[in-house]
Amino acid sequence: MNLPDSRGYFGKYGGRFVPETLMEALLQLEEDYEGVAASLEFQKKLSSELKEFAGRPTPLYFAKCLTEKYRIGPIYIKREDLCHTGAHKINNCIGQALFASHLGKKRIVAETGAGQHGVATAAVCARLGLDCVVYMGTKDVERQQLNVRRMKYFGAEVRPVNQGSQTLKDAINEALRDWISNVDDTHYLIGSVVGPHPYPMMVRNFQKIIGEETLEQLEQHREKASVAIACVGGGSNAIGMFFAFLKTDTRLIGVEAGGKSDASGHHSATLKRGKPGVLHGAYTYVLQHAQGQIEDTESVAPGLDYAAVGPEHSHLKETGRVEYTTVSDQDALKAFHTLADCEGILPALESCHAVAYLEKLEKQDGAIVVNLSGRGDKDLSIVAENSSVGVPPARLTQTGRPRYSSAEEGS
Amino acid sequence: MKFFPYLLADYPDRLRFAEILDLTVQYADTIEIGIPFTDPVADGPVIATASSKVLATGFSLDSLFQLLHDEKSSVPLALMSYANPILAYGRADFLQACTDCGAKYLIVPDVPFEESEEWRGVTKEHGLAWISFVSLLTGEERLRRITQTAEGFLYLLSLKGITGASIHSPEQVRDKALKIRKQTNVPVALGFGIKNVKDIDPYREAIDAVIVGSKIIELIDSNDVEELRQFYESFRSA
Q1: Residue numbers in A near B10 (CB within 8 A)
Q2: pLDDT per residue as tens digits for the range A211-250
Q3: Which of A109, A348, B127, B138 suits A247 as a labelling partner, its CA being 20 to 30 A distant?
Q4: Could you tell me the CA-to-CA distances from A266 to A177, A296, A298, A306 in Å, in that order?
C-alpha cells in the first residue's frame, strides 16, 4: 500500500493536527501538490534545477580508508555534502520553492536548527526572487554564526527565537505562528519530513532522489548494499536514503542523537526514548514528560536537536523495517576526526552520527552505504570547543605516507 | 451578549488563580480554562509566556482537577488543552476528570474537524460538548460539515493569526458569523483579538458570546484586582 493514506497517515502516525486557520491552506497545498508536482512541466523544471543549481547527481564515493580501517564493507559514502549550500536540504528547498512559486506565493518562512535548511531556503529564495524569513533558536544562532551570515548574504531575514529551549522546536513554533498569521501570501517551507500532511509526504518525495541515485550508482559499481545508514533528527536525509531501499532487503539503520546521556533533556533520541503524541501538526514519536509537556533536547549536532521525528519513521520503527539506534556526542565527535583524517572529508556533526555507527557494525556480505547529509564547515567551532575528543595524532609517517595507505597504493 | 473569559490554569500561581476564579465566576457565563503547554502554537506571546511560567513552577493536571472539583463553579467550565497533554494523561481519564469537576465543554485547538470524529465521540460519551472552530478562511464545504456536527457553541476565530493579535477586518468576521447563524442554531462565540468591550460593537447582532483571553492575562499581570473587576463589569453590562 502506498503511504501515506488519503488522510496523511503512515499506519497510525501522521495526520493534520493544526489550528483551524491552517486547514484550508493545507488542503489546498495537498490538492495543488498532487496536481502541479506530478505535471511533466514541473518535473522537468525540478530536474533541471537539481542538476544545474544543486549540482546533482552527488557522487557515491568509495571510502577505501574507512573500509580498511574497520575491515567491513566495502563502505560507500553518498556525498550529499557536495550539494550546493552543503547539504541534502537543497533538494527539498528547490522542490517546495518552485511549487510555492507555482501557487503564486511571494513570501517564504522557514525554520532552521543547524542552519543548513535556512541557508538552502535563503539561496533558493534568492534564485527565485522570493521574500524569505528564517526562524532560528537563539542557541543555534550563537553556535551557527557562519550559516547565519550566509543566510543574510542571500537576502534572508533571520529572526532569533528566545522561547523555550531556543533550538529547532521553538523555531518551528514561531514559523507556524508566522504562517498562521500570514497564510494568504506565505508558504511555510518545512525542512524535514515532519509537520502536518502533506508535508511529510511532500518532503520525502523531494528527498527520495538520494536513495534512487544510490541504487543506480551501486549498480554501476556492481555492488549490492547490505546496510544503509543515515542520521535521524526530523529524518529527511534518512527517509531520502531509505525510501528507495524499502522495496529491497537492505538492512536500514537510522541513528539518533544520544547526546551526553540518557537522562531527560540530555539527548534527542526520540524514537528510542519518546512515546507517541502530537507535536507540530503530526501524531508521531515525541520526547515528552509524563504529563505530555515536551522535553528539552540536546545534541552536539544542532540539526538533530529536536523532540519529535517524522511520522513515517515512527511507522517504520513499529513495522520493524528500519532499525533505530543512538550514537553519543563523544562518538560523533570521534567520527568527525576519523573521517577528516582518514578520507579528507569534514562531515557535518549530524552526519557524524551515521559515520560513528560503522564502528558498531559487524562484517557484512555486501556494501555498506552511509549517507553524508552535510558538510562540517559550519561545525568547526563546536568541534574546536571539544577538541580533546578523538583528535588523531599527526597523520604523516616519516616517509610522508598516509598511515592508512594500502599495499596497492604503496606499490 | 454572553461573556466567556479565559483563565490560564494556575496563573499567576495556584493561590491567586483560585482567587481570580472566584472573582470571574461572578461575571462570566462560561469560563474557559486553559491548560498550559510547552508549545502552544495557536497562542501569542502573552499566553505562551504565561504558560512557560506556570510550567516552570511544576504544574499538575491532577491538582487542577482537584481545585476545580473543590470550587464547584456555578458557571459552566470549558477546558482548553492542546492534544498532547490529553493523550499523555489518557483521553478517557482526562474526560472523566473534566466531567467530575463540572466541565461542560472541551476545546482542543490543534484537533481540526478532519481529525475530530473519534475525539467527538469519546467526548460525548463523557457528557461533554466538543467545541469546533471556524476561521475566516474556512471554506463553504467545510463550514457546512462543521456546522452540521457542531455542539455546545462554535468558536469563531476573529483573525488569521494567534491569540492577542488585532482584528483587521470586522466586516469579514460579521459576515462569517451571519453565515454560520444561517446554518446552525448552535451559539457563535467570537474569540481572538478582543481587547475591550468596544471591540465587540461591530458584531453585536451577529454573535452570541465573546471570548477574551490575552487581555485578561495582561490585567492579571498588572496585579490590579479592581481593574480586572471593572473589565469584567464592562462585559457583563454589554
Answers
A1: none
A2: 999 999 999 999 999 999 999 999 999 999 999 999 999 9
A3: A348
A4: 27, 8, 5, 11
